[in-house]
Amino acid sequence: MSSKNCTTSRYIDYTENQKPLQSLREVPEFEDIHLPYLIEYQIGVINTSAKISKISLVLDKKAKTKLDLSHETMNMSHRAEAYVLMTKDVILHREVHLAKTHLLKLSDVNFTSTCSIIYHTAHDNREVLMKYGVGKASLMHLRASIDNYQAVMGAPKEAITKRKQLTHQLAQRIVEQRAILDKIYTLMSIMQYTQPAMYALYKDTWVVLYRSRSLAGMCRVTDATSAKAVAGATLTFYQDEVPVLKKSIAKGGGSRIKSLSNGTYILTVSRPGYTAQTLTVHISNTKLTTINVTLEKAL
Questions:
Q1: Minimal CA–CA distance to 267: which of 289, 297, 252?
Q2: Do 63 and 51 belong together in one domain?
């Protein structure tokens, strides 16, 4: 059984553990011994999955609301910047210029504050911005998006307390599950000599994965001909044709992908001297996404 140290900010992926447990039921002489643990384990899986789902629903709702607000804010910012470029209004440019990657990295309070500044700036200049598509409807949409995000964001103290409670409860579930897994593992060791085929199946399929929730994926970029790492390649993740994250490949050819919520993204991998690659990537909250890309040198 492969494992790593588990902290309160991590969780167990149980999806790979069902096959050996089902196979155990095919060994009658061991069912009486294992059955209590199997029942206890499977009940624990249900409880833990429910806890993870509860946390995921809260985080997914907040992430989606934040993404919606960032779209509305960037849309308003771009319209205002179009006016700035035409009038060369330096002061207004400082107030409305935004980069979406920077916006999404801000804390909840600073994110909301930045979006509100864009709203109030556009509202105060609505007459001159009207010809650039800033009207009553677009301002109302942005105001509603800000209100929606503030509603799911909650009071900072309340949000911190709730997160700590859920993290503590989840940590307790993980400790309980690990204890049961250790018992099953000990009992399975008995089969090493009496049921070698079953034990081999168990060793091949029993996997417990621990990973940090903040780490969404790992990407590696190599040369198609030499298979050597392509350092300096740029990874750009798009959602709805809007760039949401840009990363660079390190000297070793890899990059750790964080801060991406659950969903499907278009990934563009590029580097001068190579032909760019575009692929679809699915980020899951329950499994680490591994991305391997090969680049061919441009002719």
A1: 289
A2: yes
Order the strands of the 234-239 sheet from edge to edge.
Answer: 242-248, 234-239, 263-270, 277-283
Other beta carbons within 10 Å of 131: 12
Query: Are 150 and 288 in a shared domain?
Result: no
Distance between CA atoms of residues 145 and 67, nearest Å: 10
Grouping H, G, I as helix, E, B as strand and the rest as coil, residue 269 is: strand
> Is 22 buried (19+), middle (13-18) or exposed (0-12) by CB count in 10 A?
exposed
* pLDDT digit string, tens, across residues 102-135: 888 888 888 999 999 889 988 988 888 888 888 9
210 Rama class: left (phi>0) / alpha (psi -120 to 50) / beta = beta
Number of domains in the chain: 2
* Amino acid type, 212: S
Name residue 219's beta-bridge partners. Answer: 255, 291
- Those residues whose C-beta lies under 8 Å from the C-beta of residue 87, and which sit 6 or more positions away, are none
- The residue written with tokens 């069912």 in the block is 31
- pTM > 0.70: no
Query: Are both 65 and 155 inside the same structural domain?
Result: yes
Q: 225 and 167 in one domain? A: no
Specify the CATH number for the domain of residue 261: 2.60.40.1120
Query: How many H-runs (helices) and E-runs (strands) does the chain carry?
Result: 10, 9
